[in-house]
């Protein structure tokens, strides 16, 4: 008996919550209607022949409509008919009801894709609607493998994504993912089936760096994607592409289990754009390209500046420079000419005699 009472209370509580969710903060009920059709709004529990006045967002209703007693009929509604409709009973003008009208469409089949960038841990599936519904739409996701339902974890960041763990590795059984879009106006489903090796696609390489090493060389290095669980057990191979900005044609290099490459045919002084992709050695598809990096080889070989020790050794082994060449014989500088001491114009064979000795 106690269990029956508890169950009844839960049912009543759920009904109250559902009713409360149909009301906004102003106490108005929410009414969803299909775009393009005629919509009938009823003024609460008033008789169908009661006299009422309708307002939308506090003003007169200007859209195409007609009034039949306590009912308001809107013609061929679209998004412009969204709003808060209020009805007032005549003649005292007492407000009797409020309706929050929301125009939209039923969902069409969602587009669903699945991918494993953490192989062999698991995979994730994403979905979206190609045509918006203009009203709240939820999604129900189920995943089956070998006739068993797998646990589905919704992503905390991406609302239209879920994560699934692989129940086993190298399974020969396919996976079936079904996504159903549901709103107040209808629902639609999409189901896809795949084998695990068809959805393996790593994330792009990370921390790509390109450094010039001479006029023709660029040293390129990168890291494996951090989301890939075990490069040792499930090794990756890489695909590098590069081109100078002055040309549109890419050059490509495929590398096995290496995170570095030297470009040896670069044009000196021309800026290059470089990207790297990766994939599992055995299965899956190539990742997207990494973020582009840019580098420019040297225009000229850099000059080597000798160290202090090398400079001192160079001075010891270099002979001294000769002094500037002296003036030719017989050529007397102007200064010497002006300061030369006086002598006779007829010099004798010996030194001049100034006086006789005793």
Describe this structure in words.
By secondary structure, this protein is mainly β. The chain folds into 3 domains: 81 residues, Immunoglobulin-like (Sandwich), CATH 2.60.40.10; 88 residues, Immunoglobulins (Immunoglobulin-like); 90 residues, Immunoglobulin-like. It has 3 helices and 23 strands. The strands form 6 sheets. Strands 1-8-7-3-4 form a 5-stranded mixed β-sheet, with no helix packed on it. It has a 4-stranded antiparallel β-sheet with strand order 9-10-14-13, with no helix packed on it. It has a 4-stranded antiparallel β-sheet with strand order 12-11-15-16, with no helix packed on it. It is elongated, with a radius of gyration of 46 Å. The N terminus and C terminus are likely disordered. Keywords: Glycoprotein, Immunoglobulin domain, Repeat, Signal. Belongs to the type I cytokine receptor family. Type 3 subfamily.
Brief summary:
With 358 residues, the protein is mainly beta. 10% of the residues lie in helices and 37% in strands. The relative contact order is 0.09.
């Amino acid at each position: 008996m106690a269990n029956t009472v508890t169950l009844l209370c839960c049912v009543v509580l759920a009904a109250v919550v559902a009713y409360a969710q149909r009301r906004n903060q102003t106490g108005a009920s929410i009414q969803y209607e299909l775009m393009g059709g005629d919509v009938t709004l009823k003024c609460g529990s008033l008789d169908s022949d009661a006299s009422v006045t309708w307002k939308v967002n506090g003003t007169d209703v200007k859209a195409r409509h007609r009034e039949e007693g306590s009912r308001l009929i809107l013609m061929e509604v679209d998004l412009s008919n969204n709003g808060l409709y209020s009805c007032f009973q005549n003649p005292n003008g007492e407000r009797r009801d409020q309706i929050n009208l929301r125009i939209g469409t039923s969902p069409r089949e969602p587009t669903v894709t699945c991918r494993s960038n953490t192989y062999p841990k698991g995979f994730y599936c994403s979905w979206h609607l190609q045509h918006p519904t203009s009203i709240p739409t939820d999604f129900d996701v189920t995943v089956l493998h070998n006739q068993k339902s797998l646990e589905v974890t919704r992503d905390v960041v991406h609302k239209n994504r879920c994560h699934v763990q692989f129940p086993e590795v190298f399974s020969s059984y396919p996976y079936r993912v079904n996504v159903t879009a549901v709103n107040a106006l209808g629902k639609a489903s999409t189901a896809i089936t795949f084998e695990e090796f068809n959805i393996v696609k790593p994330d792009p390489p990370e921390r790509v760096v390109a450094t010039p090493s001479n006029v023709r060389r660029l040293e390129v290095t990168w890291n494996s994607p951090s989301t890939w669980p075990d490069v040792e057990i499930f090794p990756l191979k890489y695909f590098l592409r590069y081109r100078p900005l002055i040309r549109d044609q890419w050059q490509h290099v495929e590398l096995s289990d290496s995170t570095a490459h030297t470009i040896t045919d670069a044009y000196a002084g021309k800026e290059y754009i470089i990207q790297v992709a990766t994939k599992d050695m055995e299965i899956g598809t190539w990742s997207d390209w990494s973020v582009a990096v840019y580098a420019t080889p040297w225009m000229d070989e850099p000059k080597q500046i000798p160290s202090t020790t090398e400079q001192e050794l160079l001075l010891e082994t270099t002979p001294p420079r000769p002094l500037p060449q002296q003036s030719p014989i017989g050529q007397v500088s102007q200064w010497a000419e002006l300061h030369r001491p006086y002598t006779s114009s007829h010099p004798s064979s010996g030194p001049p005699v100034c006086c006789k000795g005793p």
